[in-house]
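My hope is that you will study the record closing this message with an eye to the fold:
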Amino acid sequence: MERFPDPLTLLDFAIISQTYRSFNMILHDLGLKLPKEQIKLVERESRCVAISIALARLSPAMIWKAPAFIINNYSKDAQDSWQPLFEELNAWLTRMEASVRDTNDAEKFVQLIKQALEEFGALFYERFLIFIIPSVVTDIKLSRSVKKAVGKENATGIKESLLRALPFRTALQNKALVKMAQAAVVNGKDSAVFKEEFERFLEEYGDRSSLNMTPLLGMPTWREKPEIIHELVDTLLSDTNLLNSEESFKNQEADYEAAKKQIEKRLKPGAYLQFQKVLERARNEVIVREESSFLMEKLTACMRRMAMKLGSLLVNQSVINEAGDVFFLFLEELGPVAEGKLDIKERIEKRKKSFAKVYAAHEKGVHWMISTGSFPVFETKKKTREDGKDASDSMWGSAASNGVYEGPVCIVRSPAEFNKLKKGDVLVSSYTSPAWTPLFRVASAVVTERGSAISHAAIIAREYGIPAVVAIENVTNVLRDGQRIRVDGTKGVVTLLN
């Protein structure tokens, strides 16, 4: 529910199935027993589509398979393992982009899309294999070293500082965005200099999803919705202090160096040397993990272009009314539709109307898995204070990034509202995704309805050193713009001050 917060089109389920099967392959490698039917889609009479996901089960095979799998993978260096996959992903992109250009037959395009999805699933599995065990082991080692040096109470904050000042992909993206905003200040947004920077940014980052945390076939990219980038630039232009990316990076670097010195003072030389090796590995893993995610977005965007071109070919055959209608077909329907064996127009219109209703519920805070009946409506236990007493002015979530901040609420529900956020505001949203990252330069704290310690909001808040609390149900409807709140990212509580 956290990974896919926005409603899915029918063709999106094809990519969900591939990613889910890839993850299940890892579970199978660990010895778990997989269900015969992992994912089942149910189209109701209203043309609303629900998804049923069967869970893997514990199995005696885990006794020998899990240890063997962990031993075979834990010592691998993610950075070394990443290079061959990096080359494989880029080769895939080159090959598939050429196929998109050279294919103009609808039936051949269907086969190309199915092939691309199968290969995407295999590449996704390879990515999981590289990072899942080594990253967990490295994180455990780093946490132990930090706790040993500074104690349990201080460990979380120090560890966060140790993973700052990293040149990972999203940080590089933000630098490019700041450079573009600087060009707007000096030359104006109508200048050739700004337009050149804008095109350069689109060329590099245009395949990022405009909405979701995870890129999907039915989601437009930044290249298709460049107005989102303009909104981000305007947000940065609201305060010229936000354009000093070098100062921001230097502050993060100083925080990182100070944390390292604290560890060095408290560990013996031999232990500190081992700590440095683990830290370097942990930092490298963050960088390559982000880079791999960025490339998987490019693969998804490529498949989206395939689907859009297929849609255009089907429009030319008068099989569907507009290219985007292709996203309201199941994968198994693409072949019969391309062959002219399936009259689908009326069904597509009903599906689009049903999707609009699901989206309307989504805009009111109802997750699509609940509105479609994929997941039962459930009651969550109200979180209480650690002393056992409840406080009507307090909302409890999950601690995501250390620190305490008091300031005004700014509720941002979509990219169209990015320019609402001002320096010093508390960003309050349902969730955040890579498209939202530049807002973390503006916000002084973050609160989200969904998320966990490894969600986008948590990771980026820690990188920028601002408090964050996630997983507070319905917070965007409980709070109002302008209200002053206290965000305690250490304890995971948000307190209404007025």
